[in-house]
Each structure stands twice: as C-alpha cells, then as structure tokens.
Please model this.
Amino acid sequence: MNKAKLKRMTRRTEFYMSLVLLLLCALVQIKSGGRLITFPGIFTRMNVTVLRTMVVDGMFAMCCLVVMISGGFDLSFPAIAALSYSLSTTICLNNGWCATNPLAGFLLAAAIGWVLGMLNGWIISNFKLNTMIVTLGTQTLFTGISLGMLGMKEITSTLPEGFKTFGKAFLLEGTDPSTGIRYTLTAMILFLIALCALVSFMLNKTMFGRALYAIGGNEVSAERAGYNVKRTKFLLYSAVGAVAGFIGMIRVCMESQSIPKAMTGREMTIIPAVILGGASIFGGEGTVFGTMVAVGIISLVANSMLILGIDPYWQQFFNGLIILVGITVSALQAKRQKQ
Amino acid sequence: MSEYLLQMTGIDKRFGGVHALDHVNFAVRPGKVMCLAGENGCGKSTLVKIISGAYTRDEGEVLFEGKPIQHITPAESSALGIQVIYQDLSIFPNLTVMENLAINSEITAKRKIVNRKRWEQTAKEALSKIGYDIDLYARMGDLSVADKQLVAICRALLFNAKLIIMDEPTTALTKKEVDALFKTVRQLRDSGIAIMFISHKTEEIFEISDDVCIMRNGKNVYSGPTAELTRKDFTYYMTGRELEDDYFVPTNISKEPVLKVDHLTWNGKFHDVSFDLRKGEILGITGLLGSGRTELALALFGLGKVHSGTITLNGQQVKITSPIDAQKKRIGYVPEDRLTEGLCLRQPIADNIMLASLKQLTRALGTLNHDELFEKSNEWVKKFSIATDDAHKHASTLSGGNQQKIVLSKWLNNDLDVLILNGPTVGVESWAR
Model:
C-alpha cells in the first residue's frame, strides 16, 4: 500500500467509524465479562441478538444508501414496506396461501412495493421535485391507504404458518453458559448479506451504480455526459420500492406478526445511520461497508445499554447524540472538500 | 471543403420578448483560435448553446465542415466533433480523475459493466493527448481549478474533437495558470483543432486569438482577424462607446478623506494596506486573483477579519464588525458574484432593489409599505433603464447585465458614503460620492 492510498483511506469516514465500532466492541466485551464474543465459538446470545437487529435495519439502510448517493432522500420506504406486507399477508390469509411456502407472500409484497416505488420515481423524475418533499407526501399517502382506505388490521396469531416457520429458520444454535437460555442465529441474515453484496456490485461494477454517484456529484454534468438522469431516477426509486416491500415481509416472518403501524418513523433512525456511515447528505458519497459499520454501531449500542450499566431510557439520548455527531462530521467534511 | 470549419449565417433566437440573437454571422477556421467576445448578457452563451445543440435556433443556417446542419441534440454535436467545456467544467467532484476522464466515452459506448482496466486505459490515453501527468486516483474535488480544467480538456479530446468551445475558461485562474492554459490551447491549435474561446478580457483576447468575433446586444458588431483590430476599436465594439467618452471626471473632491485605511492587516490574506479615499473619488484596487483584493473589500464591509491597522471613516476611527454595522456606517458592497451573493433571484425585482432600504419603508408596527416600495423601485428601473415591463417579475427573468443594475440601485437608494464594487470589470474599485 503506497502513501497516497493510505492518506486517502484515513480521510474517509468509514475508517473512523470502523475504529469506533472496534473500540465499542472492546468496551462491551470488557464490561460484560466476555459475553459479546467467546473463543473459539465466537457466537453468543448477545451477538446473535445484535445481528438479528441488524437484518431489517441493515437492509433498509441499503435502500436509503443508494437513494442518498444519487443526491436524494427517501422518507417513504418504511411506509412502502408497511403497506406492502400488510396487503400481502391479508391477501395470503384470505386466500389460504403460504400455509407451507412463503414465496407467494414475498413476491406479492415486492410487486406491491414496486408499484408504490414507481409512483415515487414517476413524480420525482418527471416533475424534478425535491425528493424529500415528494417522499414525505407519498409516505403519508401510503400510510393513509393502508390504514384508512384498505383498513389494514393487525395479523398476529392467525398469520399463515409458512411465514412463521420461515422466520424461525436458523443457521446455528447454542445455549448461553451463564443463564442456560437457548439462542439461534437467524437465517434471515443471509438476505442481508446477499443484499449488501448485490448493492455493492451494483454501485461499483455497473454503469447504473456509477450513474448514481455521478448524478449525486453533479446532476447537470451527468446529463451532459450522456446519462439518462430521468430514467435512472425512475428505475432507482421503483427498485427501492420493490426491495422495501421484500424487506417488510422478512420482518413479518421474523416477528411472526404483521402490524400495519410497526414501521412508522423507522426512516428517522435509518437515515441518520446511513449518514453516520459516511454517506453525504449532498449526494455522491457513501459505501456499503461504511453504512453497515454504522448500522452495527447503532445496533450494538441499542443492545448493550444494560450491560454497560446505562438505563435503557437513555437509548434515545445516545441515538440522538450519534446522529448529531454523524451529521456534523459529514457536513464539515463536505465543507472542507468544497474549499 | 470550405475554408471554414463552422459557419453560421443569420442566426436568430428569441426568448419571449427578448431578442437574444439578432441575425448573427459567425465562422471558425480550422486550426485557429477564435475569440467570442462581448459584455455580460450580449448573447454569447446563447450562441454557444445553439452550436452545442442545447438550444434550437429560430432562423439561420449552420454549416459544419461544409455540410448543412439542421437541429441537433448535444449528443449529435459531440459525435460531429464539437466539444463544449462549460464554465463549471461539468466535472464530478466526488469521483476520481480516472472516472471523470473515462465516464463520457463509457456512456457513449453504452457499456453496462465497469471494467477498471479499460477505464484506466481510456484515462491514460486522454492524458497523453496533451502530455499531462496527474494521479489518476486523486479525487477530482481536491484538484486546483487549473488542474480540473486540464482534465476537462483531456476528456474533450477523447472524442476526436475538431472544435473545442471554452466558456470563460480563465475566470478563476491566476496569471500563471492562465499562461499554462494558453500553452495548452496553442498546442491544440497547432495539432489542427479549432478553439472557440469565450472571454471579455481584452488582454487575453489579444494574446491568444487569431480571429475575433465581438457581440453586443445580440448582434455581432465585428468579426475578422484579431491582428487588424486596435485595442481602441476593440473597446469601442465591446461597449459601443468611444473610450474617451468613458473617462470619469471627478468633481467636488473633498479635501478630507471620507475613508482612511492605515496599515490594515488580515493575517494570511493581506498585509499592511493603507489608502485614502476622498468624497467624489473612484479608487481602483487591483491585483491578481488570490492577491487579497476580495478579502480587503470583505474586511471593509465587516465580513472579514482585521488583525491590526485602523479604518477611519469621516474622521472617526471605527471597527466594522458585520454587514449590518457597515450599512449603519453607510458603506455598501457589491460582490463579485452578483447573482448568488447580491440578489434574491426568486424574489421580485422591486423587492431586490429595495432590499437594503426596507427600514425606510416600514410603517408603525414594522409592517412594510408595499405601494411605496413598488413606486420607489420603479424610479430606479427608469433611471437605470432596467429592461423589464413589470418590477413585480422575479429578478431571475432579467439578463446578467440588468441584474447588475439592480444590485447597484439597491445600494444607491441608500445614502452611502462609500460603495465598494468587487470586480465590475477587473479588480476592485471603491467609489465614494
């Protein structure tokens, strides 16, 4: 590794975030008396819980990341997810589908999310409006459709068996030595890994991904360079819609319940996490790695409050603090690069 | 093949009621540097956009390499060999030099998958065209303006450019960087590429161009070899006035200085500056870009820092802490970038004119008297013959030159002692009245 490369690396937010995550891990490990990671088994009840929290948040963060790289904000993905899974599970329940195989439910939710995402994409690309305002509008609209127009109900014990068994699938199990409680590492983590790999490939290895960076860096230049900015944005927002619908179904399976209001306000914890991970609020910057490190930090903090001797009521306080620090660093960096 | 690479005759373009181009004739010879000169808002950019295909013309004929061209898109004009380097350079500050160089040709080739090796090759090929060496993996945003410009030139050359149009390329460059740029321009010219160079700076035009086309108010008033033009004629064609007429004869210069600056220093920006400015006098402050002239102006308007030295206003030593403070002390400032720093473009013209004098227009309880505001601003519209039919229209509807008039009238409506103009043409002038 040459000097210039090293210098470039140390200037990245991802570098510092990784250090923070490592320090935090060390702190929790010491404070908890070695309960975060064991050797040589590695997995413990504590870290599988952290990983479990990361599945849905991490996947949502991927959606949020690609939009933010293109210089936009999507506030509507939790609402899209909620409407998609509520409608999908209701349809499956009423038709007696997914008693053993949940595939139909997933496809249905993704299709619904895709249509909703297309609405976002159509408005944003055709009318060239501020993405935050548009998705704020559609977010409320989608929630309204779900709760008002369609009157979506909570589905808990009657949830099709196929979803329940799928959500309980695990990769490995073990018992916590101190408490004797059984723990499992959810198989849903495979979806997170797959999505991360897919997004990473898309961003770095396809012209579509480079288009997102180019548009986020300078939209006028991207248009002059020959990118079809309108089509790129339409494809982006519709794809994010489809993925959001899919993620929603994963959550339904993991929680064994479909609650129409469960996603409300999710964007307000996901977006700051993505910014913390090095994505610029002005667009054009951000990586899959950085985003996942930031999601890791937030999940770890959320799950280790008690162990660190902090009242869980303080969680909001720490989340807020992390968000402010992340956004300030991001803005300061953008300012420095401008000069 | 004709003697011209690009020949345009009788080009006409209207935007609503504004006659942007009035039967303009224009031609570029291959392997020559052609300067398109003219003051702000004379139609230079419109002409460029018609050549590049961003706008369509209402009337007129265009011949490129002797072949007539109908309405074309930007992509088609690029395929013909016409490359425009815009003032903002159309770069991606967040991407690497390599990507900035290669991205256009990758898109043109309709590639779907990124191949780093091919990108690197393309980028190296582009740099080799002018023998320019730079770290391919450096972030574009970290480069100096001059380096960014060279990267933009290299990128344009990848497309077998026959005509390169440079829109005001020297605006943000220092003298040394301009020299380096001119060297590159000459190198390109000698390799047979035609360069169209847009500028309004007399010295540069005489230094670099073979031919010159001067525009004024949407018409071309002169076109021909630069060598046949004297500087005096040039100024006449640019402004429409004999230079002699333009001399300002100071009257009523007071004996006592209205503004006296002694040993003023802003660490790292300017050092030990002293001058006297008398009532009725125009003082020119000049220097190269980065010499501290803008900073000096900012310091006098309360936007900079003063580490040592004194400012004396009407015999009293003062400290100017903020723009509000400066206004109270009757100092006005017209920034270099009038559009973004001096105007609220999406506000009515009238509001913009009266922006600095709203205090005079408030009734009891601090509410605004809109009728009076409109009336007073109309006086300025007449006085400066600002080209608008309605002062309620947004400032963005005006041309650059007219917007400039708004910024001036904004300050002149206040009873000022000192008005600082940053770069009305070149350098900074302070004007007291």
Summary: Chain A has a mean pLDDT of 90. The interface with chain B takes residues 4-5, 8, 204-210, 213-214, 216-218, 220-222, 224-227, 280, 283-285, 337-338 of chain A (CB under 8 Å).
